[in-house]
């Protein structure tokens, strides 16, 4: 882990710019949503960059690749397909 510190100004609309080295270190992409939380005790704003669905899939695939084949669960695609199939079956059942 490394420590970087930058100063930024707040615009009249309340926006701030996050310096490129910080964005790169945090893996932030244009349009990405981040959560901000006020830490009143320490007078700081905490930022949670969260994880995109694609990042979650990539992380899961990396972890799953290390699991022996006989112990693997469903892939993300299989889970999505099953969820969609079950959702559709429930809708059809409700119409009957």
| Topology pattern, helix = H, strand = E | HEEHH
Rounded to the nearest angstrom, the distance between the terminal CA atoms is: 58 Å
Radius of gyration, rounded? Answer: 21 Å
Mean pLDDT: 84
Number of strands: 2
Order of strands, widest sheet? 1-2
Bin the strand percentage: 5-15%
State the share of residues found in helices, binned by percent.
40-55%
CATH fold call of the largest domain: Pemi-like Protein 1, Chain: D
Taking the sheet with the most strands, its summary is:
2 strands, antiparallel
Which regions contain 5 or more consecutive residues with pLDDT less than 50?
none
CATH C-level name of the largest domain: Mainly Beta
Shape by Cα distribution = elongated
Supply the number of helical segments: 3
| Count of the domains | 2
């Amino acid at each position: 882990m490394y420590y970087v510190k930058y100063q930024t100004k707040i615009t009249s609309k309340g926006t701030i710019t996050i310096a490129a080295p910080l964005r790169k270190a945090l893996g932030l992409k244009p349009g990405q949503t981040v959560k901000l939380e006020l830490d009143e005790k320490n007078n700081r704003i905490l930022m949670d960059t969260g994880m995109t669905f694609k990042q979650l899939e990539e992380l899961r695939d990396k972890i799953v690749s290390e699991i022996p084949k006989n112990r693997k669960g469903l892939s993300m695609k299989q889970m999505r397909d099953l969820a969609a199939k079950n959702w559709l079956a429930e809708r059809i059942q409700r119409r009957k």
